[in-house]
């Protein structure tokens, strides 16, 4: 039986790109970005698909620093979404936006029975 993992696509397809977050040479997280054909060009140049930091490194400012550094490298229009019920993720991204003084437009929508908070901003 073949197991399909969407993560594999981020290593195979142009426009789907993984970035790794390192601390003292150790991978502690990652960012998955969609661009090109994997975005809606009317609204965003990049979609922040996933952002992850290992639990023991959370709450130390590393995630905010990593997100801020990454975003500074790739100016453009962004879309970032979180499940509304994932309050830690919602708080995290609001901190990132405030830290960077981004002007953010947010909307709420339903997707497959889940309520998403979607933010759009330009760098």
UniProtKB/TrEMBL annotation:
Cited SUPFAM superfamilies: Acyl-CoA N-acyltransferases (Nat) (SSF55729)
Residue ranges crossing the lipid bilayer per the database entry: 16-33
Keywords: Membrane, Transferase, Transmembrane, Transmembrane helix
GO molecular function, one term: acyltransferase activity, transferring groups other than amino-acyl groups
Keyword Transmembrane in annotation: yes
Keyword Ubl conjugation found: no
Residues in N-acetyltransferase domain copies: 1-123
Name by which UniProt lists this protein: GNAT family N-acetyltransferase
């Amino acid at each position: 039986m073949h197991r399909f993992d969407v993560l594999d696509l981020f290593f195979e397809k142009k426009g789907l790109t993984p970035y790794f977050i390192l601390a003292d040479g150790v991978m502690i997280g990652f960012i998955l970005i969609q661009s090109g054909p994997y975005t809606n060009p009317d609204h965003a140049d990049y979609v922040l698909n996933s952002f992850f930091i290992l639990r023991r490194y959370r709450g130390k400012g590393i995630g905010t620093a990593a997100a801020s550094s990454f975003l500074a490298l790739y100016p453009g229009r962004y879309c970032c979404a979180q499940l509304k019920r994932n309050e830690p993720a919602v708080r995290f991204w609001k901190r990132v936006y405030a830290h960077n003084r981004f002007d953010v437009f947010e909307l709420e929508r339903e997707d497959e029975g889940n309520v998403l908070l979607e933010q759009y901003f330009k760098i």
